[in-house]
Amino acid sequence: MSRATQADVLCDWNRTYPFAESTFDQVRLVHVIEEVENIFSTLAEVHRVTRPGGQVEIITPHYSDHASYCSPAHRWHLSSFSFWFFTDQPKEYDYYAPAHFVQKRVHVSLLQLWRLLGFEFLVNHSRGFRRFWEYYLSFVIRGKVITFQLEVVK
Amino acid sequence: MNGQAAETRLPRILDIGCGPTKFPGAIGADKNPDTAADVLCDVDQGSLPFADNSFDQIRALHIIEHVADVIKTMEEFHRVTRPGGTIYLVTPHYTDASSFRDPTHRWHLNSYSFLYFYKGGMHGRDMWYTKVRMREARLSVKLLSVWRLLGFEFLVNHLPRFRWFWEYYLSFVIRGKVMEFTFEVLK
To answer: Residue A46's domain is classified under what CATH number?
Structure first.
């Protein structure tokens, strides 16, 4: 969006991207998704410009990290389950999220102290523990960054 | 006979954002056509397609955290509800993981998030953000099951001072789940 970046192409990530359908093998959104106006329409555009089977990597702060709140440009505070809408949602949600993905990988990093104590390992190696951590522990044993790897289904 | 029928008439209920399972006997409204909606409308696109004072009750389950403007939406709910009617509103507590699980949740709310609508709601004063007034007829906060079993949910819901203490001091550890508000519409 800004000329002060290394961008080859200037465009607004809240609008249609100036690329043809299925142009890319991989699309990376690093600290972008928490700032967009509408996550569904942005992901619909990302889905459009990525080839079938292409990979989408989304990196965003966990809602329990201070980084989620220290930028006034952050509209959304997300959890490690925030992209279920696009992956295994019931049919009535197609209205909101017609773009489909397969979630290949989710990784949550925790603050250093908790990583050293082994909590990051547990969170990333057991979906059940990740769920328990997010509901019961995550405002004490706080998260840092979530990385989602999604595969485009067309 | 007609008089009796009028007295025993069924309550007029609007289930706004009804989704696939509409409240029995209610008029369902949703923006998604693939639902049980009787009326398609979007609260973010201006006013609801109902006359003033049309309903005895509005049910708004897991809606308010999605809307573009909480105050305008509550004003619309107030407009279409009759004086003395109720607005039943369910929304996640901001300490619940479900508040952050849905990428369309714009607002993360707590049990004091509607004080602007109450008479003398903030520090004994009416707030100027809105002119509409409601009374909090009932509030129930649910906690995660471990905390409920340990008695914290009972304390939060039965001791107003404890609820205040919980929100300020405890709620990131003893985390909330969902809040159910019943507002009485004052006109």
So the answer is: 3.40.50.150
∠A18-A21-A23 over CA atoms, to 5°? 80
A81 interfaces chain B, CB cutoff of 8 Å: yes
Is the CB of B96 inside 8 Å of chain A's CB atoms?
yes
Q: In DSSP terms, which residues pair with A101 in a beta bridge? A: A152
Across the interface, do B33 and A95 touch by the CB < 8 Å criterion?
Answer: yes
pLDDT tens digits for range A13-65: 888 999 999 999 999 999 999 999 999 999 999 999 999 999 999 999 999 99
Tens digits of residue pLDDT in A121-136: 999 999 999 999 999 9
Whether A2 is covered by a domain: the verdict is no
Please indicate if any CB of chain A lies within 8 Å of the CB of B21: no
Residues forming beta bridges with residue B140, ordered by sequence position:
B180
pTM for the model stands at 0.91
Beta carbons of A95 and B34 less than 8 Å apart = yes
All domains in chain B, ordered by first residue: 2-143+177-186 (3.40.50.150)
Give how many domains chain A has, as a whole number.
1
A95 vs B173: CB contact, 8 Å cut-off? no
Which distant-in-sequence residues (6+ apart) come within 8 Å of B51 by Cβ? B80
On whether residue A121 sits in a domain, the answer given is yes
